[in-house]
Amino acid sequence: MDLISIENLSYEVAGARILSDISVTLPKGGVTALIGPNGAGKSSLFSHVARLLPLQTGRISVDDLAVKPSNRRALSRKLAILPQQVHFATRLTVRELIQFGRYPHCQGSLKADDYAMVDVALAAFELTPLADRFLDTLSGGQRHKAHVAMIYAQDTDYLLLDEPLNNLDIAASRTLMALLRRLADDEGKTVVIVLHDINFAAQYADHLVVLKSGRIEREGKPSDLVTEALLSEVYSTDAQVAMVGDTPFVVP
Amino acid sequence: MRARSTLICAMLLALSCVLFMTLGAKGNWDFVLWFRGRKLAALLIVGAAVSTATVLFQTISRNHILTPSIMGFDALYTLIVALVVFSIGAAGFNHLPSEFVFFAHISLLIGAALILFGTLIGQHRTDLMRMVLTGIIFGVLFRSLSSFIYRMIDPSEFATIQVNSYARFNYIDLNLLWISAGLTFVTLSLSWQMRRQLDVLGLGFEMATNLGEPVARRQKQALILVAILVAVSTALVGPVAFLGLLVVSIARLISPNETHAVLIPLSALIAGIVLVAGQTILERVLGLSTPLAVVIDFVGGFVFLTLLLRKGWI
């Protein structure tokens, strides 16, 4: 069974229920977007799959590999995550950062094929000219690309990204989404992405999972799902939905 | 490029050592070498222990301005010594084999450090200002508790404690030197083996988890190593507040990258230079008019303030 499956996942913080009894399977291949209003539990769900939060109840497995601490090394070769906020204590060049992506494969002592993979990642994200620049000298968009290039160098089947479009302008956002789209289409990666912006989700994702108040509200194809009814029921707002070609577009 | 700064520092250290051993030496060489050699060994051990402890601590607490001593680690050690003397009395204390006492101190320090600092460092979003404040409060608390104990004990017990509570580079306990050398060697090799894992920890909790590192366990391991190194250096020469900060900051300035494979040896070399050259100058040129610890703390304190005020470095 090749997919991410989540069964009966619940999560409570200080008596407040953040996730209640979530069971969902995320398909292998393509781009899946998790959307929902603020506080719906998107990031909590992400953090559980990403091993950033310990499981309280329920189980999660990735390709039959249970998400639990003893599998951490195998999981790091199967599932790469990019958290919402990345803060490095050390000053790194782009190349040094991307080399860390090879850590799960070589435990830090890089071999020839690891260096080759780093070069592939640099080229794929058009970062080769910036390879020896320090991260803190790059623009926000470039730095973000370097982060994604690092988890790409991890060479996993699954890529998970938590709100990667935060603080990116429209051009950087489109470039990043197009890159992720290409990884899914050309290299058969499975991309799971938490998104704030429904329009980006509708444009670039194959599959949407909608959360509200810690529950899965609906899931399906963007063209079926993004409707005025969804916006009023899930987001409680009366926005108009227009069609641009086959893609629904929420008028802000 | 990578090897150059390390090489230069190694040569400078070798030069300082030769000067320290030979400058102004008169009389029987057997005695001079033996007498100065053991001081030199102590200085080198302390330098390596303090600098490595600082590097490890800065990595697990993810900041570049806090050190074990700023967080009150050596004050905690002094407090533990005072508590032990207080509870068993100076007579009992001096009666016990010093190795046993030393290992008891180390075990107590590891336990206390894990309880007090383990939770603080374990939090994923470490707030630098809260860490600084906690460190100041811990430091004051440990020192006040120690002086409270000093007031309650009799003068002979106080004399026993006093030997452990002030920085001193002129008198070295030979018994401790062998244990310290062994312990430092073991701890430094363990730290060296952890160097790549430490690099990954520097990426933060989320990224390290993504790369398959058990972050909480590594932090605990590093904290235990830090506690042993602090205990060794404090037992040998007493607390030196800003030495670690001073040498690791210099190492970060001149090192071509911040991997632990470069940073750990480079900081140790710089610490050796600062201590050995500093002690040589003070002994031979200034005639012991000022204790070395005072000079180091003065310069180190200045560096600490500069780092704290230059936000970009944090």
Q: What report would you give on this structure?
A:
The complex is a heterodimer of chains A (252) and B (314). With 252 residues, chain A is of the alpha/beta class. Chain A has ten helices and twelve strands. Chain A has helices spanning 42-49, 72-76, 94-100, 103-106, 112-124, 140-153, 170-187, 198-204, 222-225, 228-234, and strands at 4-13, 16-26, 30-35, 57-62, 65-66, 79-82, 158-162, 190-194, 207-212, 215-220, 240-244, 247-251. In chain A, α7 (170-187) links the parallel β7 and β8 (190-194). The longest helix of chain A is centred in the last third of the chain and has 18 residues, at 170-187. In chain B, α4 packs across α10. Chain B is globular. Chain B has helices at 2-22, 29-60, 73-95, 98-122, 128-152, 155-165, 174-193, 195-201, 205-210, 215-237, 243-254, 260-285, 292-309. The two termini of chain B are 26 Å apart. The chains are: A alpha/beta (252), B mainly alpha (314).
Short description:
The complex is a heterodimer of chains A (252) and B (314). Helices cover 35% and strands 28% of the residues of chain A. By secondary structure, chain A is an alpha/beta fold.
Distance between the termini of chain B: 26 Å
What is the approximate shape of chain B? globular
Radius of gyration of chain A: 18 Å
SS-derived structural category of chain A = alpha/beta
Contiguous uncertain segments of 5+ residues of chain A: none
> What percent of residues of chain A adopt helix (DSSP H or I)?
25-40%
Largest sheet of chain A: 6 strands, mixed
Seen as an oligomer or otherwise, the chain set is heterodimer
Order of helices and strands of chain B: HHHHHHHHHHHHH
**What proportion strand of chain A?**
25-35%
- SSE order of chain A: EEEHEEHEHHHHEHEHEEHHEE
Mean pLDDT of chain B: 81
Protein chains sharing the most extensive interface? A-B, 32 and 24 residues
Uncertain runs of chain B are none
Instruction: Provide the structure class of chain B.
Output: mainly alpha
Portion in strands of chain B: under 5%
Task: Give the total of beta strands of chain B.
Answer: 0
The strand count of chain A comes to 12
**How can the largest sheet of chain B be summarized?**
none
Span from first to last CA of chain A?
Answer: 40 Å
Mean pLDDT of chain A: 86
